[in-house]
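Entry type: protein chain
Record version: 2
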Amino acid sequence: MIELFQMGGMLFMSILTIELSLVIYFGVKGFLNKNKKSSSIKSVGLLAVITGILGQLIGLFSAFEAIQQIGSVSPAMLAGGLKVSMITTIYGVIIYIIAIILSMIVRARK
């Protein structure tokens, strides 16, 4: 797990982890307080998806720039780079799924 965190890039993976912490915080806060709305949970989750996509796009941009400078790249190396670039997006989507589940739990509790 730590290896995936490092491969995904410390900046974006750290931001996504902070967003995951916020989702959990708002989920627990909404669960304990019956009058709170669950919209902030889903909003932070959606922000995590957008952050993950942005991390992937920046990673792809820098990878394609390196490929342009090198010239010829093997398909295996290209596939490996594409795989690594998707780590932040996958993490963001997982955070959003957690946010939706927590939001449903908070709504059901009301």
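Comment: The helical segments are 2-7, 10-32, 39-70, 75-85, 87-109.
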